[in-house]
Amino acid sequence: MKKTPRDAEARYLLGDIYLRQGDGKASAKELGRAVEYAPGNTGYRFRYVESLQATGEFKKMITTLKAIDDQRVETKKLAFLGFANLGLKQVDNAKTLFKEALFKDKLKAGDSINALNGLTMIAIQNQEFSQAADYLD
């Protein structure tokens, strides 16, 4: 790191290790640098969003996610936006985003597990257990 402090991959790897160890704050710092040094790397940006989620920085999650303009990851982006809205206690917005992610996922193959998890969490919070079970199936 001392030789090449602006090495985005090194910052990403260090941030990833911190996140796996449960140190969200250190992870967010390093992953934020990785995104700064390689702003076009969507993978770095999503991992950074995960670290922001771990630290409860939901507004920053939204800002970071809005900078992603790649239709190939739209389902994932919408699901993370849903979780950010849940963190901000905007449950109706979160539910809408999760459902939009599921709809887009039906239009093209993708990963909607995060959206299903979000909808399941909302259903359980609302004590709608049969609905939660349907999401899990």
What is this entry, summarized?
The protein is mainly alpha-helical and 137 residues long.
Give the tags.
137 residues; mainly alpha; 8 helices
If you had to describe this structure to a student in words, what would you say it looks like?
Helix content is 74%, strand content 0%. With 137 residues, it is an all-alpha fold. α2 packs antiparallel against α3 (42-55) and α4 runs antiparallel to α5.
Topology:
Layout: H1 8-20, H2 24-37, H3 42-55, H4 58-66, H5 74-87, H6 91-107, H7 113-125, H8 129-136
Q: What is the count of β-strands? A: 0
- Strand fraction equals under 5%
SS class = mainly alpha
Taking Cα atoms only, what radius of gyration do you get, to the nearest Å?
A: 16 Å
Unreliable segments (pLDDT under 50, ≥5 consecutive)?
none
Specify the overall morphology. elongated
Count the DSSP helices. Answer: 8
Q: What is the share of helical residues?
A: over 70%
Alpha-carbon distance between the termini?
A: 46 Å
Taking all residues together, what is the mean pLDDT?
A: 92
Q: How is the main sheet built?
A: none
Order of helices and strands: HHHHHHHH
